[in-house]
Design a protein that fits this description.
Elements (H helix, E strand, L loop, with lengths): L1 E4 L11 E6 L2 E6 L3 H9 L9 E4 L2 E4 L2 H14 L4 E4 L5 H14 L2 E4 L6 H10 L6 H7 L2 E5 L3 H4 L3 H6 L15 E6 L4 H4 L3 E4 L5 H12 L8 E2 L2 E2 H13 L2 E6 L1 H4 L5 H14 L4 E6 L6 H12 L5 E2 L6 E2 L6 H6 L6 E4 L3 H4 L2 H9 L2 E4 L5 H4 L3 E3 L10 E4 L5 E4 L12 H16 L1
Parallel strand pairs: 6-7, 6-17, 8-9, 8-13, 9-10, 13-14, 17-18, 18-19
Antiparallel strand pairs: 1-2, 2-3, 4-5, 4-19, 7-15, 11-12, 15-16, 20-21
Helix pairs in contact: 2-18, 3-13, 3-18, 4-12, 9-10, 9-12
Bound molecules: iron/sulfur cluster.
Length: about 425
């Protein structure tokens, strides 16, 4: 049994997992939710272990050396490649990825640009009065999930940190806390909430503004705002101002709906306003387990959290122009390296059509629509199961991923693959 294993699935990064290994395979998993258990039990199944390159008649198997040579030639010949993905690998791999982007004069971007990109922009506008999940557990008595459904996306968030655990100042666990869910529909999280506030789709900005009006001493004259009755908004404002320590967790229901960055600006400003009455904090509900880590690494190395363009020889950041979908839809990149991601399944059609038309190298272990369209596919080991590394939880606390099993023979980690790729690119560009 391997104890204190960290689950490499969602941004909650639960670090109390126990994994039973028998005959070199994972036999069972304790403490993880369904999502985490599925990753431990099934991630090694159906993987490919031989590098592939595209030939005349489709993909053919090759050696790691040949695959790396071909990948390095594609990237070195490119004038401005796109390096995308990074949310499900380690910070050690991110560090080499940023060095590679600088060497190539590439655009480097992560899944942040299609999930919490607006949140990062808002933080730069108005700051980020945040908290750690440990403090939430010990102190918070009012929890709000706005546009987030952790019962499905982060199943142990409530039991480990926000609602159910007993904390230093919350000895009775859920009995000492109140849960409010604000969403456009009654999600499974909303079903267990003390209060559910149903907002009209696209009405979040108006509802935040109404709350700020009341919190700042104004009078709300409308009978309802964004589908929420006036009385309910006043009752909500009363709860927000009278709690001891409130925390607003928000997800893509707020970041990717009408208003985007302005929704988050406004929500952070509401939290700032509330701190005149009580303690209040805000936190992004980050999805992939190390999407936060990539923003941390890129920020300390290049100064910006995502969508960084090195094509002028220095880091430039202008989301709307330099994010992955921007450069794909404006056809401004001429090759792509995809690491630990499947953009072909998730990007808009126009981006995918262009990705399919340029040379693409992918580092991944499962067959996906992205590997299907790639010219070179390099299989890798699984971070957090087959090798150690660093990941950042959604509250930007770094956590050491543990190793449970050896990878199949000859399979390299993302960091090792990227290091060898960087060496080969440097040799070609001399
Ligand atoms: S909540 Fe997230 S990190 Fe925790 S066990 Fe489930 S998938 Fe893993």
């Amino acid at each position: 049994m391997v104890t204190d294993v960290v689950c490499p699935f969602c941004g909650t990064l639960c670090d109390d997992i126990e994994v039973i290994v028998e005959n070199g395979e994972i036999e069972s998993v304790k403490h993880a939710c369904k999502l985490g258990s599925a990753k431990f039990l099934h991630a090694r199944k159906g993987r490919f272990t031989t590098p592939l390159i595209r030939g005349e008649e489709g993909h053919i198997e090759t050696t790691i050396e040949e695959a790396l040579d071909r990948a390095a030639r594609i990237l070195a010949a490119s004038e401005r490649p796109l390096l995308f993905g990074w949310a499900t690998t380690t910070c050690e791999a991110h560090r080499i990825g940023v060095a590679l982007a600088e060497e190539l004069g590439a655009v480097i971007d992560s899944c942040t640009s299609v999930c919490h990109g607006p949140s990062e922009l808002a933080v730069q506008d108005v700051g980020y009065p945040t908290i750690t999940l440990g403090e939430v557990k010990n102190r918070a008595d009012l929890i709000i999930y706005w546009g987030a459904n952790p019962m499905h996306a982060h199943p142990r968030h409530l039991s480990r940190y926000s609602i159910f655990p007993r904390g230093y100042f919350r000895e009775r666990g859920a009995k000492d806390r109140e849960l409010i869910v604000i969403d456009v529909r009654k999600t499974d999280t909303a079903k267990i909430a003390d209060t559910f506030v149903q907002v009209k789709p696209g009405g979040d900005y108006e509802l935040v503004s109404a709350l700020r009006l009341i919190v700042n001493g104004g009078e709300l004259k409308e009978d309802e705002v964004a589908g929420v009755p006036r009385d309910q908004i006043y009752a909500l404002a009363e709860k927000l101002t009278s709690c001891q320590w409130g925390v607003l967790f928000f997800g893509q229901g707020l970041t990717m709906t009408r208003g985007k960055v302005r929704n988050i600006d406004n929500a952070i400003s509401l939290v700032r306003d509330l701190n005149r009455y009580t303690k209040f904090s805000i936190m992004m509900m980050r999805g992939h387990y190390n999407v936060t880590g990539f923003s941390e690494v890129l920020t300390w190395q290049a100064g910006f959290p995502f969508a960084v363009d090195f094509s002028r020889g220095y880091p430039r950041y202008n989301p709307g122009e330099t994010a992955a979908n921007d450069v794909l839809q404006s056809r401004e990149v001429d090759a792509a390296l995809i690491v630990a991601s499947d953009p072909v399944s998730h990007f808009p059609q126009r981006s995918v059509e262009y990705l399919a038309s340029i040379p693409m190298v992918t580092i991944d272990l499962h067959w996906t629509p992205t590997t299907e369209l790639s010219d070179v596919v390099i299989p890798c080991a699984i971070a957090g199961i087959e090798y150690e590394g660093t990941a950042y939880r959604m509250d930007t606390v770094p956590i050491k991923l543990r190793k449970v099993l050896d990878p199949p023979e000859g399979i390299l980690t993302d960091e090792e693959i990227l290091k060898r790729l960087l060496e080969k690119v440097r040799a070609l560009k001399k």
